[in-house]
Design a protein that fits this description.
It is a single chain. This protein is of the alpha/beta class and about 850 residues long. Helix content is about 45%, strand content about 15%. It has 28 helices and 27 strands. It has an eight-stranded parallel beta sheet. Strands 19-21-22-27-24-25 form a six-stranded antiparallel beta sheet. The two termini are about 30 Å apart. About 50% of the residues are buried. The model has no long low-confidence stretch (mean pLDDT about 95).
Length: about 850
């Protein structure tokens, strides 16, 4: 299979199904897209908005159109020359009774044939943390009662709309002192075997078909409902325990996806589980309906390298394979992973170098050290609270590991050592396995051990013991236990990094939201165009086939919102003065006594509002009301993620109401003073941001990597974090030509037409060049040299040149999207000395550029904001 030319990420559900996707195909083909990049399509929990809560890996969700609908979609795509890349989810499933594997495990316990499919610690009862209070409290309130599940033909505890199946072994106790009419049920239960659950269900179904049996069962269950001691005893007989959802952070017997108890970890390291979870997806690959696979949350797996080798072997060498992997600063994808690249978060971080003004006063001398301290505090907070149950489990495993050479210790000291080591991790995880430790991983372990000992020398012995066990494959008598500890430690470190940085720290830091993005380093400081070129050269040599993303379903804000937020780095004093002015203007809107929003939150909200502010002045009250709703929903999510005064597991609804009331009052049509001032102040930021958007778009389309277009982001994408970025959309036809001398009102047409022109160039004469060509930075010299960046893609038989403006805030010209010619006075693009100049054509304007060693910038950017040049 040839590599993708460009992908288009489509989020199924929320109104998008296979039939509607078929209708989009002409639009995608016209844009120059080569592959539809589909979110998970397997059956998920009823009403799922994202599809990552899968309940059946063997079924394509009927809600989307089922197998027949997907087959038609794949066929129509092929007819238009397009393929499919499918998002697969090997790390977890929904802990939901629509998942028959999970239902079986709850019903039969460790005897279930699916007990080994899930990452469960069977040394204790399976915890089911889905109650509003404790079991005893909910039972006393009459919310838990025995019931008969008529859909699955089993006895259960009923709680709201959930039916928790009882183990057949407890049926005789449930039915003791019952009517003789129910003896047949007891007999069926006594013969029940988990290996033949179908026969058990059939026997129960046959018995309750008799009206006398059904009536006697209903009467008996109604009678024992009032017997609380009996029901408590029955609960204790099960292989599971119903508990309050709040206890999951302290006591949970299974691995979850991050801190979501409704998603249970899978053991795909087991070959049988791998086959069971991948059978359908690989069948679609083998049938030619799927051309590539995107592996979700690769760092959650026990052994990513082993998994990927197995997947590559089964999918074949010609299947495009990418992984969702967050690469921290200077971190490279492991070379021994048989993949084509990542989903492209690191590309977003690289664009920040291009679009941020590096000498900005936003970064002072203490930025890095202050950030490191703040991030460490966030990590320790989530380790002590959100992930306390995982830390306790690790500490319990660690306590079982010491041999004669290691000191004995207690769980509390070991738990603290684990927290300090994970808090010091500079990357998501190491990749230690039974194969040993790489030099990279040994270095990381040495560094975090030093930092952890410096932070708490009193647990130095425990830190040394843990690091020794992580490094060694032979140092412990119980190698299976040591392997389990090593695996759990690494799975936890990635989850902590994600929740502490992306979902805590980035919602606390409000001074420069453009840097608060998935995959960004928390302590990042801009290093400008040179660093951008360095990263692009590295990408060309190390990861030319990875995706280049600018918006995804996981990004904190849409690409065009982020592009305008980068402009703040060019005028931090102006922005700070505006924030101070707005705070004074809106002071009366703070609810008395609520102290909300505090200054840091208010600053965060103003930047977020800038990111979503519409291009046209607000004139319709309905548009303002829609913005109010979006911002209020976003504010609650942001406040809870920040975990300062409210959180998901302990929401302060009064505080949240005060913040949302402030927002709604501030964005009320009656308060024109603020709205007019914000509109006036935002206008140049918005204007410069649109030029940034076109710059980042062209770079994505022509730099090393495969361009990825998130749904509807070929137009203006001012979305906020999910679920705001999953709103329905309708594509608009592309213009056949780019608007010349465009204005702000032409932005969406410019962006979409630019994407179409460049992707069709990639699909045609530029296919080999842009897929495999080298990367050569080009110098822009002259008074305005820092306001542009340029690079050449070069191969033996071709070349192209990309030229984009940057840092344009103080150089805008009315409503024009292109920059005034005067800016480029005496500024030139320098042709490489070792290459003969050639005659070029500008794809955007159709104009010809004569061969010269020094090309005037005004010829390149005189009538359109960006330039893509190729030999005539």
């Amino acid at each position: 299979m040839p590599l993708p030319n460009a992908t288009y990420r489509l989020q199924f559900r929320n109104g998008m199904d296979f039939e509607k996707a078929v209708a989009l195909i002409p639009h995608l083909a016209g844009l120059g897209i080569s592959h539809l990049y589909a979110s998970p399509i397997f059956s998920a929990v009823r009403g799922s908005t994202h599809g990552y809560d899968i309940v059946d890996f063997d079924e394509i969700d009927p809600v989307l159109g089922g197998l027949d609908g997907f087959r038609r979609l794949a066929s129509e795509l092929k007819a238009h020359g397009l393929g499919v890349i499918l998002d697969i989810v090997p790390n977890h499933m929904a802990a939901h009774f629509e998942n028959r594997w999970w239902h079986s495990v709850v019903e039969w316990g460790r005897s279930s044939g699916f007990a080994g499919h899930f990452d469960i610690d069977w040394r204790q009862p399976l915890t089911l943390p889905f109650l509003g209070g404790s079991f005893e409290e909910e039972l006393a309130a009459g919310k838990i009662r025995p019931a008969f599940d008529r859909d699955r033909n089993c006895l259960a505890f009923s709680y709201h709309d959930a039916l928790y199946p009882l183990n057949p072994g407890s049926y005789p106790v449930v039915l003791e002192n019952c009517s003789p009419a129910l003896d047949r049920l007891i007999a069926v239960a006594n013969r029940a075997e988990p290996s033949d659950a179908a026969a058990f269900r059939a026997g129960i179904a046959s018995a309750v078909e008799m009206p006398s049996v059904a009536a006697a069962l209903d009467e008996h269950l109604q009678r024992v409902t009032a017997d609380r001691p009996f029901l408590e005893r029955l609960h204790q007989m099960q292989s599971w325990r119903l508990t309050s959802w709040i206890t999951a952070r302290d006591n949970l017997s299974y691995r979850r996806f991050f801190e979501i108890a409704g998603l249970v970890g899978l053991r795909v390291e087991d070959p049988a589980v791998f086959e069971a979870t991948h059978r359908c997806a690989l069948g679609l690959v083998e049938a030619g309906m799927v051309d590539g696979l995107r592996v979700d949350h690769i760092d959650g797996l026990a052994d990513p390298e082993d998994y990927l080798h197995r997947l590559r072997e089964r999918a074949g060498e010609h299947t495009y394979l990418i992984v969702e992997k967050i690469l921290e600063a200077s971190e490279l994808l492991p070379e021994n992973w048989p993949v084509d690249g990542t989903t492209g978060y690191e590309f977003i971080s690289t664009l920040a170098e291009l679009l941020t003004d590096e000498p900005s006063k936003l970064w002072n001398d203490g930025h890095r050290s202050a950030t490191k301290m703040a991030v460490t505090a966030c990590k320790l907070q989530v380790l002590r609270h959100n992930f306390n149950t995982e830390v306790k489990r690790l500490a319990g495993l660690a306590a079982c590991l010491p041999d004669d050479d290691a000191p004995s210790t207690d769980d509390k000291r070991m738990a603290e050592a684990i927290r300090l080591l994970i808090a010091a991790m500079p990357v998501y995880r190491t990749y230690l396995s039974g194969r040993g430790a790489s030099e990279r991983d040994r270095q990381i372990l040495g560094e975090i051990a030093s930092q952890a000992r410096a932070a708490a020398p009193e647990v130095g012995a425990e830190i040394a013991t843990i690091v020794a066990r992580l490094k060694s494959i032979d140092g412990c008598a119980d190698r299976q236990l040591a392997a389990q500890f090593r695996t759990r430690f690494q799975q936890l470190s990635g989850a902590v990094m994600a929740k502490a940085v992306e979902d805590t720290f980035f919602y606390r830091r409000g001074d420069y939201l453009a840097a608060n993005e998935v995959g960004a380093a928390a302590d990042w400081t801009p290093r400008g165009v040179d660093r951008f070129h360095e990263r692009m050269r590295e990408r060309a040599s190390k990861s030319p086939s990875g995706l280049s993303a600018t918006s995804t379903h996981d990004t904190k804000r849409g690409e065009d919102a982020r592009a305008r937020l980068h402009v703040i780095s060019e005028a931090p004093e102006l922005w700070a003065a505006a924030v101070a002015r707005w705070r004074d203007m809106n002071r009366a809107r703070h609810q008395q006594g609520a102290d909300a929003p505090e200054a840091s939150v208010e600053q965060f909200l103003y930047q977020s509002l800038l990111g979503t502010w519409p291009l046209e002045p607000l004139s319709d009250p309905k548009d303002l009301a829609f913005l109010q709703e979006r911002m209020s929903n976003f504010a609650v999510k942001a406040l809870r993620e920040a975990k300062l005064r409210t959180s998901w597991d302990s929401p302060d609804e009064q505080y949240e109401a005060a913040v949302t009331a402030f927002l709604r009052d501030m964005l009320d049509w009656r308060h024109r003073e603020f709205l007019d001032d914000f509109e006036k102040t935002a206008k140049p930021f918005v204007h410069a941001g649109l030029i940034n958007s076109l710059s980042q778009t062209l770079v994505k389309l022509t730099a090393p990597g495969i361009p990825d277009i998130y749904q509807d982001s070929e137009r203006l994408d001012l979305s906020l974090v999910d679920p705001d970025n999953r709103r329905a959309f309708s594509p608009r036809p592309s213009l056949s030509e780019l608007p010349q001398r465009p204005t702000i009102r032409d932005f969406e047409d410019c962006k979409q037409a630019l994407i179409g022109l460049c992707l069709n160039y990639r699909r045609g004469r530029g296919a080999e060049l842009l897929a495999k060509g080298g990367y050569l930075p080009l110098d822009v010299q002259g008074p305005a040299g820092r306001h542009a960046a340029a690079f050449m893609r070069c191969a033996q038989d071709g070349l192209s040149v990309t030229v984009v403006p940057r840092l344009v805030f103080r150089h805008l010209d009315g409503d024009s999207l292109f920059l005034p010619a005067g800016l480029w006075q005496d500024t030139h693009l320098l042709w490489p000395e070792d290459r003969a100049p050639t005659r070029l054509r500008n794809l955007a304007t159709g104009e010809t550029v004569e061969p010269r060693h020094s090309i005037p910038m005004r010829e390149l950017l005189g009538s359109f904001p960006v330039a893509f040049l190729f030999p005539e």
